[in-house]
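W.,

You were right to be curious about this one. When I first looked at the sequence I had no strong expectations either way, so I just let the prediction run and decided to look at it fresh. Below is the sequence, 368 residues in total, followed by the output.
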Amino acid sequence: GRNGRNGRNGGAVAVAVAAAVAVAAAVAAAVAAAAAAVAAAVAVADVDVSDYAYEREWGCVGGAGTDGRPRVLLHAAPRTVAVPLEIVRDPRELRLRVEDARRDGRRIALVPTMGYLHDGHVALLAEGRRRADLLVLSIFVNPTQFGPNEDLARYPRDLDGDLAHARAAGVDLVFVPEVAAMYPDGYQTYISVRGLEQGLCGASRPGHFAGVASVVAKLFHLAQPHVAVFGEKDYQQLAVLRRMVRDLDFHIELVGVPIVRELDGLARSSRNAYLSTSERVDALSLVRALGRAEALVRGGECDTGRLAAAAREVLAGAASARVDYVELRDAETLETVARIERPTVLALAVFVGKTRLIDNRVLTTTSI
């Protein structure tokens, strides 16, 4: 009867449904496995976009940008597949990438470095990551800031290590240009911040700050950052760049990050790698000299001549140390001062063996 036929039909339907569910489950499992494989591959693979032509799309959603130019963007669904670290070598490509980011309303942070990254650089990257949606790290050993007898040829380099640090810090894009790309044949334009580059490191490294200011200005034009992050160990450099930004109307926020030190107080520096075991011990005389001057200021000493002499006395106790300069300057203008009546920076440059190290500390009296 009808009920028997209905029963047989119902059984057939149940079997069909069960089969369909099984097939769907198998498909879902396959999709999940494929997604996991893609995520794993993307998570470990950096992308060097210089390997792709500018006109080529690669994984781009939406095709050309709003201006009609093809976009070279990796697409990943939020919280599903992590976008890998991207490596850019051509200045034109960097410019295209950041222009796309700015059109999308993203805030860009730039951390310029010469590579051989250490914990001090990691602190800069962390600050940049905190302040922006797109974090750009530049790695470029800039020849124009080295003098003829300085350590350009032997400056430490470790790109693989740098990329590992960048990956761990959440960097989105690493700019690694060649010298010829930054300084093409016929290049002859340099920026001089005349007052602030005088004295201190500028006296013993003529032309150094013109090289620094010029390459940083180029990086600002190429990366178009909203914010740029620098370390306060290079105190004069930060002062020079802040003045350049003001004078040339760069619409960029410059952020200084406090000095990162080893457990024993030595300021982190890529050049620490040059130090022998005994020189590494003598290098601690810099932080001891700063500490001696700071203790005297806390005790009421305000005469900068006596404070400099006390610092030099400490440095003289290190066998391999040779003083380049020990100076106290106004912390903002870098003008020389006779007494500490406002924040004053005690700046040191010392050769330990053949390695030139710098350090500083801002001193204030309790009455300021």
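Here's what jumped out at me. The longest strand covers residues 321-330. And, maybe more interesting for your project: Strands lie at 47-48, 86-88, 108-113, 134-139, 173-175, 227-231, 253-257, 321-330, 344-352, 355-363.

Coffee later to discuss?

I.
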